[in-house]
Amino acid sequence: MGRADHLAVELGVPSLALMENAGAGVAAQARLLLPGGAGRIARIAVLCGPGNNGGDGFVAARLLRDAGLEVRVALLGNVAALKGDAAEMAARWAGEIVPLTADAIAGADLIIDALFGAGLDRPVTGIAAEAIAALNGSGVPVLAVDVPSGLDGNTGQPLGPVVRASHTVTFFRRKPGHLLMPGRALCGGVTVHDIGSPPEVLDRIAIKTWTNGPDLWRDAFPWPRLEGHKYGRGHALVVSGAAAHTGAARLGARGALRAGAGLVTLASPENALIVNASQLTAVMLLPFSGPEGLSGILADRRKNAVLLGPALGVGEETRALVEAALAAGAATVLDADALTSFAGHQAELFAAIASIAERPVVLTPHDGEFQRLFPDLVSAAKPERARQAAARSGAVVVLKGPDTVIAAPDGRVAINDNAPPWLATAGAGDVLGGFTVGLLAQRMPPFEAASAAVWLHGAAAAAFGPGLIAEDLPDWLPQVLRGLIDPVP
Ligand SMILES: NC(=O)C1=CN([C@@H]2O[C@H](COP(=O)(O)OP(=O)(O)OC[C@H]3O[C@@H](n4cnc5c(N)ncnc54)[C@H](O)[C@@H]3O)[C@@H](O)[C@H]2O)[C@@H](O)CC1
Ligand SMILES: [K+]
């Protein structure tokens, strides 16, 4: 963001204008948040810090006062120590500035947190930390400028005491800290305000991190074509666990079919054949026994994508199944037990992936599975952990959670933010594996396929609403897909 601001200035936008626009965005949002009907003029406390975040606060304070509201400004530090644009905006405020104390918010109907933004570089301490504690305990709505003070905008991690905002106004683009947990929760709602940075600045920054959404993968999405037929839409194979562990694979298979794979087959151990057969209709069924059996099924190269992992069991047998699938040359999604089985055997997995470099592989660990496979990747920033894991493994890595991150071996990262809390439910991950293998079967490139699967998964859950169970996800996918085809291709 700092680079974007510099480039905007180089392209001829005065930095003072950027700050004026930023403050105007904050003031506009503040008016939306004010509780109405108090029968008196609303009171706003603006807490300003020593940098340009505070400068935005001074602008908002002036605009709100000029609009007739009662505004109190409290500053951390000395007015004389303010520099540059922030000093100029403090002068233009031309009103009383009280020193920041924990009492500065007394009687306020709304608090504007303009203490620290992108320039935070250490934990907040002293009087500012006391003010943050008071504000968090006040029950008064808090509007954060750019990021809640104390939050690292790059990682989504607090550096120490941190503001819990009701709403955050940020500028130009959202930053990773707005999307990654716990940052996403600490921001409350997030509004992006255009401050006049020319869009060309993005072309001059080598951006490798995006918010996940249709714009990222729409062009690669494998919509059915009139001239196509089901055999052109791939054949996904989902490997079932043993008799008492079959539901996960069926969820995956249904997900693959709904995601548009032309054909989907469930590979079932003999002892699970009856239970699988009794519950499948459009999904086909093939018995198999052990890694040789799986190799035999995948010798038919039309079966071009395979999902392994859910409820397979942890151990040598599962490792052998994974190696058989990778050796067969199908696009491969590895989830759950297929990942955990390689804890302590990572080198074998990465070597097997490297030997089929031209075939897509997607790993879909949740945090625990990730730690078992990549125990040394402990960086605070989730995108960085996923990026390093993808580079090391040679696979696209989907690091799951409320803030799922998708990373490609070439360094691209997408952060997903559309998952509702009720998506954390038994079997949801199995369906995600199914969506992913279904898109891979249709030859969608793996980073785009994984990103699309994650987004569609969140969108289907959001569309369904609370009470969701995993079975609902495939069945709500059509409604989400319908929303994407406009105009019909
Ligand atoms: N052209 C620009 O750069 C624009 C910047 N804008 C605003 O400017 C902000 C970034 O401004 P700055 O780079 O000045 O950074 P900040 O305003 O976030 O704070 C930097 C100041 O706080 C001090 N500081 C950092 N961590 C501290 C801590 N824990 N305790 C005490 N002091 C601490 C630093 O030494 C520095 O003096 C953005 O977040 C945004 O709100 C907007 O006005 C838009 C335009
Ligand atoms: K702030």
From TrEMBL:
AMP binds at residues 400-404, 429. (6S)-NADPHX binds at residues 52-56, 117-123, 146, 248, 366, 430. Residues 213-484 form the YjeF C-terminal domain. It catalyses: (6R)-NADHX = (6S)-NADHX; (6R)-NADPHX = (6S)-NADPHX; (6S)-NADHX + ADP = AMP + phosphate + NADH + H(+); (6S)-NADPHX + ADP = AMP + phosphate + NADPH + H(+). The keyword Kinase does not apply. GO terms for biological process: metabolite repair; nicotinamide nucleotide metabolic process. The keyword Lyase applies. Its EC number is 4.2.1.136, 5.1.99.6. Homotetramer. Bifunctional enzyme that catalyzes the epimerization of the S- and R-forms of NAD(P)HX and the dehydration of the S-form of NAD(P)HX at the expense of ADP, which is converted to AMP. This allows the repair of both epimers of NAD(P)HX, a damaged form of NAD(P)H that is a result of enzymatic or heat-dependent hydration. This is Bifunctional NAD(P)H-hydrate repair enzyme. It comes from Hyphomicrobium sulfonivorans.
